[in-house]
Amino acid sequence: MVNADDVRRTALALPDTTEKLAWSMPTFRVAGKMFVTLPEEETSIAVRCPKLERDELVLAEPDKFWIADHEAGFAWVRVRLKAIDQEELSDILADSWRQAAPPRLLESHPELGVPAGE
Asked: pLDDT (tens digit, 9 = 90+) per residue, 8-46?
């Protein structure tokens, strides 16, 4: 199980990432583009996720992944922090970061891979 401090530390370790308060919650951005939020009582995160993949995740692991009603029309998924460990958190945040990062950062950091679907 991970917590909000783990999310913050892991997100901020990714290249060109900053933290900004928005909608009364911490958000993390790469080159100004949001890739993770820490909503509610910081018991879950919202991350970028292609809709088809998101729907498959929710169906496969509903105790871990879910879709907030107000995010249903967007390519975001929620992740319950109590259901993941540090390794999975790192993978999830890196994947969301790749989806938001500009090409120059993706090229500069090949160790982080390429966005899903490419």
From this structure: 999 999 999 999 999 889 999 999 999 999 987 889 999
- Rounded Cα distance, 35 and 24, in Å: 16
Return the closest-CA partner of residue 26 out of 12, 58, 66: 12
Is 21 within 8 Å of 101 (Cβ atoms)? no
Full-model pTM: 0.91
Chain mean position to CA 60: 18
Task: Outline where the chain has alpha helix (H).
Answer: 4-12, 51-60, 86-100, 103-108
Beta bridge partners of 76: 48
Angle between helix axes 4-12 and 86-100 (nearest 10 degrees) is: 50
Using CA atoms, how far residue 16 sits from 41, 46, 71, 94, 96, in Å, is 26, 19, 25, 12, 14
Cα separation, 90 vs 9, whole angstroms: 10
